[in-house]
Amino acid sequence: MAYEIFGSDITELKAEPAKKHTVMESNDNKPSSDRLEGRNSVMEAIKAGRTIDKVYIQDGIRDGAISSILSKLKGTGTSVSFVKKQRLDMMSETGHHQGIIAQTTAYEYAEIDDIFELAKKKGEPPFIIILDEIEDPHNLGAIIRTANICGAHGVIIPKHRATGLTATVVRASAGAVNFTPVVKVTNISNTIEELKLKGLWFACADMDGEVMYKCNLTGAIGLVIGNEGSGVSRLVKEKCDYIVSIPMMGQIQSLNASVAAGVLAYEIVRQRFTK
Q1: With pLDDT > 70 as the criterion, what percentage of the chain qualifies?
Q2: Both 122 and 73 in a single domain?
Q3: Within a domain: residue 59?
Q4: Less packed terminus of the chain by CB within 10 Å, N or C?
Q5: Residue 19 resides in a domain
Q6: b (16+ CB within 10 A) / e for 61-100
Q7: Domain that residue 95 falls in
Q8: pLDDT tens per residue, range 93-133
Q9: Rounded distance, CA 138 to CA 267, Å?
C-alpha cells in the first residue's frame, strides 16, 4: 500500500480537555527535545524522571554505561531495540550518538478505563480506533486528530514496532492529544480479546474485505488500522469480527493510513446518525 501525509492546517478544538499534558516542542536549529543522544544525556533523563518511550542501542555494545542504562529501564515499559550503527548514524541529529538514541514521550498515556469513562460521560457506545504498528509519527498524529473530530473516545497503539507520542505526533495532531485518550498496550491481539468481553465488536481495514456500506458498524465498536506497508497483521486480523474495505474507483488501489482511518471513521459516524 502507498502512503502520504495530511496537510498541517489547524482547526480550533472547542471541547474541554480531560487532562492537562506538557508538550515538548522542538527547534529546527537544534536536536529535537523528544530525542536524546549519547549515554550521559539518556542517563540524566532517566535520573530526572523523564518517561523514555523507546531506546535504540548499537548492536554489540554492552559496556558499563549501556548496561547501567538498561538496568535502570528494566520494568519501566520502555521499548529497547538493538540496531546497526548505520541506522543510528541516519537517526542522529548531532552526529555524536555514542551508540545510543532515546525517544522520550511528549504526552502522558491514558488507561483503557479512561476511554470507557469518556464514552459513559458522553452517553455513547464506545468507539475506539486501534492502530497496528503505525510507524510514521505524522500518520499517528493525523489519526488522533481525526479520532477527536469524529467523536471517537480513544486511540490504542502498541508498545513495540510503532511510533509513540513524540513531539512530532503532538504537532501533527493539531492539539487533539490533549482531548482524546491515547493508550499504549503490549499486545494488540490480547487487548482486542479483552475489549470483546466489554461488548465491543471489531472492524479491520483491509482491501479484500466487505465494502464498508454493507457492514453494520453501529454500537460499541473498534476500528483497526494497519501498518503503512503491510496492513493489519494476520493475528490481529483473525481477532476481528468484520473485514471492511473502502470502495476504490481510480487506477491507484491504495490509501494513506490516516486517510483510510478518516474515511472508515466517518462511515461509523454516518451509521450512528442514521440507524
Answers
A1: 88
A2: no
A3: yes
A4: C
A5: no
A6: eeeebbeebeeebeeeebbeeeeeeeebeeebeeeebbbb
A7: 35-104
A8: 888 899 999 988 878 899 999 999 999 999 999 999 999 99
A9: 23
